[in-house]
Amino acid sequence: MLWNRNFSLLIAANILLYIAVYMLFPLIHRWMIQAWSCSELQAAGVTAVFGIALFLPGAFNNYLVDTFSRKNVCTRSIMLLALVGILYPYVSSVEMVVLLRILQGALFGIVLMATGSTLAIDVTPSNNRNAANRVFTWSSIVGMLSGIIIGIEGGNYLSFDTLLYFSAFLCAVAIVLVSMVTVCFRAPLDLPLCSFDRFILFRTLLPGINMMTVPMVLGMLFIMISNAFFYLCIGSGFLIYLLVRQVFTRPMNGRIQIFIGQLFTGAGLMLLCNADTGEYLYGAGLLVGIGVGFSIGQFLRMMILLPLHCERGTGYHTYQLLWETGVMLGIWISQYVRQAGNNNPYQVALGICVIGFLLYQVYIHRYFTKHYQTN
């Protein structure tokens, strides 16, 4: 059974964790501009360094979760993530802010590995693990969008310090939920300190790089649009995709699915190129949400099916790292384009969407078909 008690607890914890982390992006970006007189590009750079830091602990991941208690690795990393988050008002330089972002990124990287690619698999029967990876991904997107909305709207009603404590509170609730999960004891293994296990699976790296074009577009929108209802529209579009997927249960041809996904996303971006207010904005959000759903549905399918049996955790963590990195790249690219002033950021996002579509159709689909058949 997929929705057992342990898995449900992890899903709830994952949603809260993503809200706690993603609500900080608009908050810290705005705070860097107001409190530190940073430019938009500098603030985006400080925000996006989080994505680079995700990779810092990766080589130690396998050693951590197979030498120490997996729950303890997860809960203590979340606790440190929360504690670092409430230190922002007390720093005395931009360099210290960057250091805190790096620390949070590294800790979040450990948490991602310990939850989605380790604990979620541990508590799920082997015949339901593909579905578990999908559900975990959908819950992450729900938490991500909710966090962005809270970060945007919360700043209008609450102080920066209060919202930081709220983020820490959500982390604390996530810790309690993870602590309630029952995981079978695993004897410590004699493992090397550093390895690529539970870090990066090179077999899935090319499809993962192609997949990054989807979160890059989202990241660009996160920094350009500060209308909370727009993100509700994206969530609604994503829900429409999930409903369509429930009706048509047979796997869709990958080329067609990516075509539909990028077509909807591109249509939404074209609306934004014309106008990013009113009905244009909300219609674009709905189209982008549907497009992201279709696109990620196929990319995630590849990232789940390409790993060998013993590589599932590493393959899923590769997906998680590249997704988060794509969002951070999008945040930085949007501000770089704005500062350069030569291009409309929505046009650049549309170009990224087209590149992602062409790369999949020309090469990645054949790569997946070839390697999946030999799996």
Automatic annotation (TrEMBL):
Molecular function terms, GO-annotated: transmembrane transporter activity
Residues passing through the membrane, by range: 7-29, 41-61, 73-90, 135-152, 164-188, 200-222, 228-244, 256-274, 280-300, 344-363
Q: Which Pfam families match?
A: MFS_1
What the entry lists under InterPro entries is as follows:
MFS, MFS_Exporter, MFS_trans_sf
Q: What keywords are assigned to this protein?
A: Membrane, Transmembrane, Transmembrane helix
The UniProt record lists the keyword Transmembrane helix: yes
Instruction: Spell out the Gene3D superfamilies in the cross-references.
Output: MFS general substrate transporter like domains
Report what the protein is called.
MFS transporter
